[in-house]
Design brief:
The chain is an all-alpha fold and about 290 residues long. It has two domains: about 110 residues, Four Helix Bundle (Hemerythrin (Met), subunit A) (Up-down Bundle); about 130 residues, Up-down Bundle (Four Helix Bundle (Hemerythrin (Met), subunit A)). The protein has ten helices and two strands; from the N terminus they run H-H-H-H-H-E-E-H-H-H-H-H.
Length: about 290
């Protein structure tokens, strides 16, 4: 009886966990988080973005070795293989948790092939090393980029005091107020909402310039958005309902969707992956 309980209880627990995940399969995405130690190699902890530059160097070094192996150029191949050996091993120094993911045997085989001028062996070893890179990228590249490369807007203020999320909500409401008002024949109210929208966009632009500094020129609203806003204002004053809708749609694409496609998606992913999940919160999100 005791042995049955000893072996049966873990199986029941695993089965229960699988059942919970299956029940919530439309809400659950299972992914692997990178070790926390990688965070020290990204901004703001690391000003030089050492991790990214190491990855760029590895890609360049492997390509150089491949190029010179195919050209049977031992001198240049040796120069780049020394750099590859140093930078590939550096991964274990920066993120010790990933030491087991490195294939040091393949790295040694590449070095031996270089020394003995066995060019096909070098190419074979490089393919194995590229496989270790691909494996790690498959597991971690997307989530690492979301967690450590996406900008953090959570503490950003607009016009000196208003939190960015509140300001963005106000802009969204302005756009919809315009749509509601002109659709219901309330042109004066549509123009009033337009003025609020324009003011809010200008205020947002003063915040955007902290990152998007184009030689003193305002990155937001840019000339295309400004032109679309002029067209929208004219339409609201003199156009028919079709031209008003078309003009508002253009503003929404240029002034809202265009930036959201980069910043909102990445920021939402950063927040999502940065949250701690527990089974209680999972169970609360059952159903359709």
């Amino acid at each position: 009886m005791r042995w049955g309980l000893f072996f049966g209880l873990p199986i029941l627990i695993v089965a229960a966990l699988v059942a919970v995940v299956q029940m919530h399969d439309d809400h659950v995405v299972i992914t692997k988080k990178p070790p926390q130690s990688i965070g020290q190699w990204y901004k703001p902890e690391n000003k030089r973005q050492v991790w990214l530059h190491t990855m760029f160097k590895l890609r360049r070094e492997m390509l150089a070795m491949e190029t010179y192996a195919r050209a049977e150029d031992p001198s240049n191949m040796k120069k780049w293989s020394d750099a590859l050996d140093k930078d590939y091993r550096q991964i274990a120094v920066m993120v010790p948790e990933w030491t087991s993911r490195l294939d040091l045997d393949a790295l040694a085989a590449a070095q031996k092939g270089v020394t003995e001028k066995r060019y096909k062996d070098v190419l074979t070893a490089l393919d194995v090393l590229k496989g270790t890179c691909k494996s790690c990228h498959t597991d971690f590249r997307a989530i690492t980029a979301a967690m450590y490369r996406a900008p953090d807007f959570s503490d950003m203020k607009v016009a000196g005091a208003k939190p960015l999320n509140e300001h963005m909500l106000a802009l969204s409401r302005n756009v919809n107020h315009i749509k509601i008002a002109f659709g219901d024949g309330r042109d004066a109210d549509a123009l009033a909402a337009f003025v609020d929208l324009k003011t809010g966009m200008d205020e947002l632009g003063e915040t955007c310039v902290s990152c998007h500094n184009k030689l003193g020129k305002k990155a937001y609203p840019d000339p295309a958005i400004t032109s679309a806003m002029v067209t929208l204002e004219t339409s609201l004053k003199t156009g028919d309902i079709k031209s008003k809708g078309r003009s508002l749609g253009m503003v929404a694409v240029l002034a809202c969707a265009q930036c959201h496609g980069t910043h909102r998606l990445s920021f939402d992913a950063k927040n999502l992956f940065g949250q701690k999940k527990d089974w209680r919160s999972l169970l609360r999100h059952g159903g359709g």
